[in-house]
Amino acid sequence: MSAAESPLGVLIVDDEPLARARLARQLQTIDGCQLLGEAADGESALQQLDSLDPDLLLLDIEMPGENGLQLAAQITARPNPPAIIFCTAHDEFALPAFAVAPSGYLLKPVSVEQLAQAIAQARRLSKPQRQALHTHTPQSEPPPASGRRQIKAVSRRGVQLLDVDDIRCFIAEDKYVIAHHSGGETLLDESLKELEAEFGERFVRVHRNAIVAQDYITGLQKTSDGYRVSLRGVPLEPAVSRRLLGRIKSLLSEMA
C-alpha cells in the first residue's frame, strides 16, 4: 500500500463465529486492510454499516433471517455502497449473486491468496464508481462501445473477475472460450462472436477461433504451417488465417 492510499475498511458478516475468526486472521496478513467490525446477521450488519461506513463487506449468503443476497440487494441500492465479496460454502448461488454485481464470489474454505486477489480487484473501484455500476435508469449513459472493464468467470474456485485490459487473447475451443492473460488461462461461458462484438475496438480477429488484443501484439511470425501473431506477456502465438493475414499486416504497419 502506498503512503497516499488509505486502509480498506472491512466488515465481516457471517453467522458462524469460526468463519468470522478465520477471515479476520487472513485479513491481518493482507496489506492495506483494516477490520472495522463483525456482524452475525443482516440487522446487525446494517447497523454497523451506518456507524462504521466500511469500504468492503465479506458477506456470507446462508444466514438466519435475511440472507446475504437480500442484504446485498439492500446495500447496493444505497448511495455510495461498499464493495461486496461473497464468502459462501455453496456454488449454486453464483448466478443469483450476479444480480447485485459483487466484487467477488469465493467458496469456503477461502484461502488467503484468493481473498487477497479478490480484495485487490475490489480496491480498483471507488465507491462512486461502484454506485454507477448499480445505477440503471432510463437517463443513464449507455456503456462505452469498448465493453465491460471486467469479465466474470465461474469456476470451482468461485467467481473470478478478469480485467479486460489484462487479457491478451480469446481462443475458442469446443463449446467454450479460453481467455489468456498474465495470470494464466480462464474458461469462459461466452461465445467468441459475442466477445468480438463487445470488444471489437480493442481486439482484432486473426482466425475463426481467435481474437487478440491489439495493444499486446508484438509481431507476425512466419512458420512452417503459416503465420502466427506474437503477444506480449504470454507464450501463446495464435495462428493467423490466410483470409485475415492482409488485415493483420495492415494493422501492424499502422502500429509501427
UniProtKB/TrEMBL annotation:
Annotated segments matching region Disordered: 126-149
A Pfam family hit: Response_reg
Amino acid composition bias (Polar residues), ranges on this chain: 128-139
Gene3D superfamilies: 3.40.50.2300, LytTr DNA-binding domain
Residue positions, PTM 4-aspartylphosphate: D60
InterPro entries from the UniProt entry: CheY-like_superfamily (IPR011006), EvgA-like (IPR051015), LytTR_DNA-bd_dom (IPR007492), Sig_transdc_resp-reg_receiver (IPR001789)
Record keywords, A-Z: Phosphoprotein, Two-component regulatory system
SUPFAM superfamilies named in the record: CheY-like
Domain Response regulatory: 9-123
Domain HTH LytTR-type: 151-254
Protein name: Response regulator transcription factor
